[in-house]
Specification:
Blueprint: E1 12-15, H1 22-37, E2 43-48, H2 54-66, E3 71-77, H3 80-90, E4 94-98, E5 107-114, E6 117-118, H4 122-132, E7 143-145, H5 149-160, E8 168-172, H6 182-188, E9 192-196, H7 218-225, E10 231-235, E11 242-245, E12 251-252, H8 254-268, E13 273-277, H9 282-290, E14 294-298, H10 302-312, E15 316-318, E16 324-326, H11 336-348, E17 365-366, E18 370-373, H12 379-392, E19 396-398, E20 403-407, E21 410-416, E22 422-429, H13 432-448
Parallel strand pairs: 2-3, 2-4, 3-7, 8-9, 8-10, 13-14, 13-15
Antiparallel strand pairs: 1-5, 4-5, 5-6, 10-11, 11-12, 15-16, 17-22, 18-22, 19-20, 20-21, 21-22
């Protein structure tokens, strides 16, 4: 009935007309609705991104939910964080956004929520089993159209941000849904804003909508370098991940953006715990201690971090991929539109250029993410063999998510991706020579223990 491989760790995602069809969305709507009903839920907010397949997929998902007794509020075309905001504002029991985030235009998918928490991992597998067993509730749910959430969301963010001076920025919306919100919000806050690709277009005609990959940010980089803009702000396809370009055209990694926000947060909130994922720099974790916080290294994955943050009552968390979660002065979910506003607020408090915000940190040499092909069946076992071999030899191994080996002058990471058949590696060291040594040590072991 459905391809089980589209039921991934954090969401449901696949290729349009191959993995996903109207019938697929209808069945998943029935199973999600059933899952929610059995948790005591009855109401759901739903929205969708600008992909060409989204409107009809959303309609079929709604049909499935209503047939099992769910009362649905359709908020229309929206960014993912606006859907999250709607769950909070409308006090619904669940929420759904039809989106494939930063995937290419021939993909689509579904992000599911129970209240403001992601439905992920084994919970997504439960939804698959309901379909496989044809185990559905029955009922007759209602449908309400609500087109007021966009303005309510904008008003909420504007009310919570205060700039000390005008800031000049360039926004690259990546032709995703975030362009519907961020430029207007920033102008209302008093910024001078130039827009790039802020009109939603599900074909993504200008560049792939991923602001964390430099090759997709080349136009924004050039625009910033050739202007007097203080920064460039990028959003992914559904606006839950942020990218930042400094005034010199240099890209900031996700952990650096988070680091800047954490420094500002800890000025007024010393002693707070901060989560960063296993891919974050040593500088990030050291800086939290330096500024009076308590660093927590945790599993990669927005759903993992959001769940941990909620369970422990934390206020600021994030990961290398650009998902940043703020419960401080906000609602606790990953919202790149809001994070951009907080970043600009920090910029407004100083005349220091963005390139100097972290200039006092030690120079570190690091790699971007490196992906080594593997298989979905074998990737976790492969990482476990590599991890265990280093543990037996007495290395300092953190195994919260794969393995992160710490040396006195650097570290190396090897973990299995939860979404694709690859091993994810990242390396960092105090010198370029040491970086290559650590990388070779771990990559050789991976090859040996295939």
């Amino acid at each position: 009935m459905v391809n089980p491989e589209i039921f991934r760790q954090y969401d449901i995602r696949g290729v349009v007309d191959k993995d996903l069809s109207n019938e697929t969305l209808y069945l998943i709507g029935k199973s999600y609705g059933t899952y929610l009903r059995r948790l005591g839920g009855k109401t759901v907010a739903i929205g969708g991104d600008a992909r060409l397949s989204t409107p009809v997929y959303k309609d079929n998902f709604i049909k499935g939910m209503r047939e099992v007794g769910i009362d649905v509020t359709d908020i229309g075309l929206c960014a993912t964080p606006v859907l999250y905001y709607s769950i909070w504002k409308l006090k619904t029991d669940g929420g759904v956004v039809i989106t494939a985030s930063h995937n290419p235009s021939d993909y689509n998918g579904i992000k599911l929520n129970h209240c403001l928490q992601s439905v992920y991992g084994e919970q997504i597998q439960e939804i698959l089993k309901l379909i496989q067993n044809e185990d559905f509730e029955s009922g007759e749910g209602s449908l309400t159209l609500n087109r007021e959430m966009d303005e309510s969301y904008k008003d909420y963010i504007v009310a919570g941000i205060k700039l000390d001076r005008k800031v000049k920025v360039i926004v690259d919306g990546g032709n995703g849904t975030g362009g519907l919100y961020l430029p207007e919000i920033l102008r209302r806050l008093g910024c001078e804003v130039k827009e790039l690709y802020c009109d939603p277009d599900g074909t993504f005609p200008n560049h792939h909508p991923d602001p964390t990959i430099e090759k997709y940010m080349t136009v924004l980089i050039d625009e910033v370098k050739n202007s007097d803009a203080e920064a460039g702000l990028g959003l992914d396809g559904d606006a839950d991940r942020i990218g930042v370009i400094d005034e010199n055209g240099k890209m900031l990694f996700g952990d650096q953006i988070l680091n800047i926000i954490v420094r500002d947060f800890l000025k007024k909130n010393p002693g707070e715990k901060i989560i960063g994922d296993v891919k974050c720099s040593k500088n990030f974790f050291d800086d939290i201690k330096k500024y009076g916080g308590i660093p927590i290294m945790y599993k990669t994955g927005h759903a993992n971090i959001k769940s941990k943050m909620h369970a422990d009552g934390l206020k600021v968390s994030g990961e290398m991929s650009g998902h940043i979660f703020l419960k401080d002065r906000y609602l606790g979910f990953d919202d790149a539109i809001y994070v951009c506003c907080r970043f600009v607020e920090i910029m407004s408090k100083t005349d220091m250029p963005v390139s100097q915000f972290l200039a006092d940190q030690p120079k570190m040499y690091n790699t971007p993410e490196i992906h080594i092909p593997s298989t979905d069946d074998g990737k976790f076992d492969h990482v476990a063999r590599v991890r265990d071999s280093f543990i037996k030899e007495g290395y300092d191994v953190n195994d919260i998510d794969g393995m992160r080996i710490t040396f006195k002058d650097g570290w190396g990471l090897c973990r299995a991706s939860n979404t694709t058949p690859v091993l994810v590696l990242r390396f960092e060291a105090e010198t370029e020579e040491r970086l290559h040594e650590i990388q070779k040590l771990i990559e050789d072991r991976i090859e040996k223990l295939k």
